[in-house]
Amino acid sequence: MLEYLVRSKSIRKKIVTKAYECGESSHLGGALSMVDVLCVLYESVLQYDVNNPQSEDRDIFILSKGHCVLGWYAALNEFGLMTDCVFDTFQINGSHLIAHPVKNLSLGIESSNGSLGQGLSFGLGMALGLKKKLQDRSVYVLMGDGECNEGAVWEAAATASEIELSNLTAIVDVNNLRNDGSNLTYQKNKSLSAIWSAFGWNVIEVDGHSHVELQDAFDAAKNENGIPTVILANTVKGCGVSFMEANNEWHHNRITSSVYARILEEWRSDV
Amino acid sequence: MFDLDEKLARGWSRMGPRAVYGQILYELAKTNPNIMALSADLGRSSGLDRFSKEFPDQFLNVGIAEQNLIGISSGLARMEFDVFASTFAPFASLRAGEQVRMNMGYMQEPVRLVGLASGFALGFLGNSHYGIEDVAVLRSIPGIAIVSPADCFELYKCIVASLDYPGPIYIRLTGGVNMPVVYHADYEFDILKVDVLSEISDITVVSAGATLGFAKVAVEELKDEGAQIGLVNVHTIKPIDNDFISKLEGKCTKIVVFEEHTIIGGLGSAIIDALDEAKIRSVEVIRCGVNDEYPKAGDYNYVLSTLGLDTVGIKTKLCGLL
Question: Which site among A111, A143, B68, B130 is 20 to 30 Å from A117 CA-CA?
Answer without folding.
Answer: B130
